Known about the structure:
Elements: E1 2-8, E2 11-13, E3 16-17, E4 25-29, E5 37-41, H1 44-48, E6 55-56, E7 60-63, E8 70-73, E9 83-89, E10 97-101, E11 105-108, E12 115-117, H2 118-121, E13 122-125, E14 128-131, E15 137-141, E16 145-147, E17 153-156, E18 166-176, E19 183-192, E20 196-202, E21 212-217, E22 222-225, H3 227-230
Parallel strand pairs: 1-9
Antiparallel strand pairs: 1-2, 3-6, 4-5, 7-8, 9-19, 10-20, 11-17, 12-16, 13-14, 14-15, 15-16, 18-19, 20-21, 21-22
Amino acid sequence: xxxxxxxxxxxxxxxxxxxxxxxxxxxxxxxxxxxxxxxxxxxxxxxxxxxxxxxxxxxxxxxxxxxxxxxxxxxxxxxxxxxxxxxxxxxxxxxxxxxxxxxxxxxxxxxxxxxxxxxxxxxxxxxxxxxxxxxxxxxxxxxxxxxxxxxxxxxxxxxxxxxxxxxxxxxxxxxxxxxxxxxxxxxxxxxxxxxxxxxxxxxxxxxxxxxxxxxxxxxxxxxxxxxxxxxxxxxxxxxxxx
Length: 242
């Protein structure tokens, strides 16, 4: 597989650099308060073949027979058209970031079969109460609460773990500030199938940078940008005259 790292405001590197200690690994996230560092192991024999900068441009992932550990090893087949990608796009200052699918899907309401606080989750209309999330009518229980029936859906972006064409191998977290409470963003090591399109939504102070970016793997190259950059509206020249 080809190997990439997507970082910063959408920069792309065609390699990932391994660390030597405490054992050969790819660091995902960072250590410290309010942070999470995951060490994705690199096979010892593979690590010995890496150069001084310990960069990896192509690799394969195996599940070991003895321990069942996921392990990054030398590329076993050049015909694998998937991509191994380290997702490390940063949040805005004092903001956050979340990785999702590129299109919204119909999702069961989170409040099904539960008692919800009407002050925060209900909207009133015509003497009735409705769930703010999915719009389903709910049954009042006193003044402050309502009972949500076992029904109702809403449209939302699926999480990274639930996207077809994406295999999440490792997850970490980077944070801002000594206590890790000023903001932060997750990092992932993933395998992308050809044709996969994923999205990252960023909040906080971005100082003019895009708040929504998309990552596309077409089986040959990895592209990052806004939708109009990845799919520019300039190639279709047939239409109605204005």
